[in-house]
Write a structure and sequence with these properties.
274 residues, alpha/beta, Rossmann fold, Pantoate--beta-alanine Ligase, Chain: A,domain 2, 2 domains, globular, binds adenosine monophosphate
Length: 274
């Protein structure tokens, strides 16, 4: 595995590759969720590039940029074991200059839910993903459904800017009790880990309701909020179609149910695709 810290080193390393390139961008502190993307990319491509970059432009003032978990040494080992060809670990200076040209998230899909609660987050996310997709020259790039809105916006960016890469959505990986894996789960302390399960439990409750024929969004949301009572603060429960438009009735095959809530220090998100 070649570890590249600069653009020049990445370009040099890419010369050793021929054939299709799978690419998995991450912010590090790798867990089984990241690994599932990496393994899928490994299987579906001749070569595999992973990036680790904690992107400052997608963190808002007062968010956890400085405290974001970093585990470079362990991450390098994981990537080696997963047979990554190139691990790209740039510094902020490598990725950004002053007074940059920016792309903005679309006004509707980009400014509801996560975009409304974290204004500017998606602008920064799209900016870095555009850069990384261009640099990797990936054939396919892998993103988790865990960040459903992020996945939708990246898919839209690739379409709107006619970018020559296929975006591959990957399933959400959970721990044995149902908690969606996240680098931020390390912040959970004491009973918070147990209480954090209310997010996935609320989604399970929604699934049961849908399976028994309940399709009314308000009724489902009310029950979900009851389950989410164990969180310290619920930011939103939303039931939308794949275009992120609010629904009144569940549309089987075209619905995403999303939750965001604070439990202790971390802000957690989870979702379910129906
Ligand atoms: P991050 O390091 O949090 O920016 O995540 C990097 C990629 O891993 C993104 O595409 C995430 O959606 C994906 N990811 C993170 N957690 C999970 C998970 N539990 N299951 C599936 N994909 C995940």
């Amino acid at each position: 595995m070649i570890i590249a810290h600069t653009i020049e080193a990445l370009e040099e390393a890419k010369k050793t590759l021929s054939g299709s390139i799978g690419f998995v961008p991450t912010m590090g502190a790798l867990h089984q969720g990241h690994l599932s993307l990496i393994q899928q990319a490994r299987k579906e491509n001749d070569h595999l590039i992973v990036s680790i970059f904690v992107n400052p432009t997608q963190f808002l003032e007062g968010e956890d940029l400085d405290a974001y978990p970093r585990k470079d040494e362990a991450d390098i080992k994981i990537c080696e074991l997963a047979k990554v060809d190139i691990l790209f670990m740039p510094t902020v200076d490598v990725m950004y200059e002053e007074d940059e040209l920016c792309i903005g998230a679309p006004v509707r899909r980009g400014y509801v839910l996560e975009g409304e609660k974290r204004p500017g987050h998606f602008d920064g996310m799209l900016q870095i993903v555009m850069k990384l997709l261009n640099l990797s020259a990936a054939t396919r790039a892998y993103f988790g459904k865990k960040d459903a809105q992020q996945l939708a916006l990246i898919t839209q960016m690739v379409k709107n800017y006619f970018m020559d890469v296929t975006i591959v959505p990957c399933e959400i990986i959970r721990d044995e009790v149902g908690l969606a894996l996240s680098s931020r789960n390390v912040y959970l302390q004491g009973d918070e880990k147990e209480r954090a399960l209310c997010l996935s439990r609320s989604l399970k409750r929604a699934t049961k309701m849908v399976m028994t024929g309940e399709l009314d969004v308000e009724t489902i949301k009310t029950e979900m909020l009851e389950v989410l009572g164990e969180a310290d603060r619920v930011e939103y429960v939303a039931i939308v179609d794949r275009e992120f438009k609010a629904l009144e009735k569940i549309k089987i095959g075209n619905t995403i149910i999303l939750v965001a809530a604070w439990v202790g220090k971390p802000r957690l998100i989870d979702n379910l695709w129906i």
